[in-house]
Amino acid sequence: MINEILKLKEKKKAIILAHNYQFPEIQDIADFVGDSLELSRKAKEVKDAKIIVFCGVKFMAETAKILSPEKKVLIPEIDAGCPLADMADYDEVIEIKNKYPNAWVVSYVNTNATVKAISDVCCTSGNAEKVVRNIPAKKIVFLPDRNLCWYVKQKISDKEIICWDGYCYVHQKFTIDDIKQVKEKFPDAEVIVHPECAPEIQKIADGIYSTSGMLKRVKNSNSRKFIIGTEEGIIHRLKKENPDKEFYSLGQPKVCFDMKKITLEKLKISLEEEKYEINLDEKIIENARKALERMLEPGSER
Ligand code: 13P
Ligand code: SF4
Predict the structure, then answer these.
(1) Which ligand is nearest to the CA of 212?
(2) Which ligand is nearest to the CA of 195?
(3) Residue spans of beta strands (DSSP E) within the chain
(4) Nearest residue (CA) to ligand 1, atom 6
(5) Under a CB-based contact definition with an 8 Å cutoff, are residues 17 and 53 in contact?
(6) From atom 5 of ligand 2, which residue's Cα is the shortest distance away?
(7) Which amino acid residue places its CA nearest to atom 1 of ligand 2?
(8) pTM for this entry
(9) pLDDT tens-digit readout, 56-90
């Protein structure tokens, strides 16, 4: 299967991009693995490939299409969505924009393309603080993740930030008990969590990072043991890149079922049949691209 995928990839001049939560075998066959910010940058930079196959969830593949509209962008499973992204409904976003006409709308990349198209700027978990800090407006509507919004509010006090009430069901599952138990069992371990975790989890963790931020933290830390508070798929890369360190899930491993809808078999079919292609309205691409490019401007990097 792996050989067939590699042959097809070469024949079709395709590049495979994969998110840090993908199954290990998908990560291992991908040309590039990263967090949402790195994957957005990569999708924008891709020059020679004709096709981008995006192994992740739909908003990520849409982001790749918006940033590289001349490329054919495929996702191996069209039903790999993000329930958090679906919590920001287009009509409700229009409503809040009308309610706060002077506010800037900051959309986490975990939003659908139609919502990006009516946003002022996008951000990821890796650069949310920097993006919000650089905004000229004093009033901000931040959507859709209330926990990432809370994280940003802790860092920035000179702006009024209105948080949308969305959350990620995967990160919402971490509990204070998970942290207490793990701290008792591994008192010398560093607890690192994603900013999509609830505020009470963020408050008692040792550090808060995007998925690739966790990889950097682990590399630079003197700790030998780490407790990981995010989707369990990241542990494959953490172990692979740090064979001398130990990694444990925070409580029972947490799984994003949509991320796990992508399999090697579906990746092969995707390349063979060139499906499922991401097609977006030109106007949506044009408007959403402004919000995404503003996020990628120098100074907004993590
Ligand atoms: P990262 O950008 O940190 O990889 O997060 C994406 C995501 O969907 C987290 O649930
Ligand atoms: Fe969406 Fe949560 Fe899955 Fe990330 S982990 S893709 S936010 S459902």
Answers:
(1) 1
(2) 1
(3) 14-19, 32-34, 51-55, 72-74, 104-108, 121-123, 139-143, 160-163, 190-193, 207-208, 225-229, 246-249
(4) 36
(5) yes
(6) 256
(7) 82
(8) 0.96
(9) 999 999 999 999 999 999 999 999 999 999 999 99
